[in-house]
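Fold it.
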Amino acid sequence: MEFEFDVVVVGSGAAGMTAALTAAYRGLSVTLIEKSRLFGGSTARSGGGIWVPNNPVLQAEGVPDSPEMARTYLKAVVGDRVPEAKQRAFLDQGPEMFRYIGARSKYWEFAYDRGYSDYHPEYPGGLAQGRSIEPKPIDGRLLGGDLHKINQPTMSAPKGIAITVKDFHDLNMIARTWNGKKTAMKVGAKTALNLVKGALPLSLGKALAARLWLSLREAGVPVWLNTPLTELIVENGAVVGIRAEHEGRPVTIKARRGVVLAAGGFEHNLEMREQYIDGPQNTGWTVGATENVGEGIVAGQHAGAAVDLMDDAWWGPSVRNPDGPPFFMLAERSQPGAIVVNAAGERFVNESAPYVNVVHTMYQEEKKVPGSIPAHFIFDQNFRDRYLFLGNFPKRPLPQKYFDAGIIKQANTLAELAEKLGVPADKLAATVERFNGFARKGRDEDFLRGDSAYDRYYGDPTVKPNPTLAPLERGPFYAVEMVPGDLGTKGGLVTDEHARVLNEQGAVIPGLYSAGNNSAAVMGNDYAGAGATIGPAMVFGFIAANHLAELDAEPEARSDAEPEAVAAAPVKRNARKVSAAQEN
């Protein structure tokens, strides 16, 4: 079967849905295909944060940002690893993306995560109060029958609960601060109200995916689920469409203007990981969508595309879960009373540093002397009594499954713990003694833990003078295996400032665009702030669709043909077009 649209988008994460939505608003006929029976990809499984400087949400909150500050900061984070034109395109078009879609979609609602620091606030242009925003929670009942089609997060909340990024931050201090207790009561009250009303609240990444999906549905964009890409159609060096399988049947979809690849990274493809990334690799360490095996990247390569940053990922220290996806260690590393050591029983990193940087250090140390992968996250009973860990409230026993699997070890003394870990007991004792001295003084002289505002964001404000430092002194002691997990891979097709895919010679491949983790990240080898994965994904999806809309070629007559399965899909074809007056 053959179909034809102006634009074909591959992938239903934030990048793909933003591209398809923008194309529809620009008056183009567009279809979006998704290989899974679920929509949302890794976006739906994520925290849903968005990092786009100077966007309207930040401006309304009075955040002291400016285009020049943002350019200075991003340049400090990325350096020359990514062309300046691409950095500028992201910063210039990001605010416009929010304004443009916000003027057209009634589902476009976001909140500022005040205080969630940029990941390098000490860099020129960095902001300690942060630039991250998140989608407001939304009632899943608005999705109707599509609710069960949203990709599931790594940890699902009980029915009726919707926890925001701000809630998560405060709940980590439930045993330590009144604010933590008030937040727990607030979440409890909202949950009770939701249960009474029968509401099905969605938050974090599921809220973002839902809001984009509802916007697509409102705009009449057809989404073909269960439709994996098989290859790009290339004629005379230009991409003119795709071949795919829809519900098990081969289909050809021609694209009069172009194809946008937004099919995610290759985090669940062990062969590709081992080909491109040095050091130990394991697909069980990633929380990315299980469907992400890199076929969008490979399809682009077959069309002649260059790739970059394939040796990197959106890393984060994680704990293996015997029953499913790993636990991404976000807050725990900043909370006082814990350290990270290698097989020699020695610290080697600022535990509270941005997660991507911690894992970079793990791999760097592993190359020097094996023993940092996996590392050991060690804490005492004071830590266990004070803070959430692996999703468990303070003082609650940790799940036995982690002990049975050897992921967590417990001992009454540090010497016994060292024996269970197979690390030198004298080295571990010396490491803890040295760290305890720093903790009591409030200054980490080895790794400067707590110096950055980012380090302190998840720290304990009741601990003075450094909210990230407290001695390990009360048994029993615990050691948790810490692996180099990730949110997805960072490398992909090389694109320019218009999201056009480039070949090895740096020339544009006509008709081919890419955004999200299908493309090489604008963040280079670092991470500017919470949401620096999703923010650029959405912006370059927006950029790609706008560039396609502005091509000289006039759209031909729209195809009325659509497969039977699509006619039964939850969204209609492009039934509504935006007038020229609306576009301006």
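The mean pLDDT is 93.
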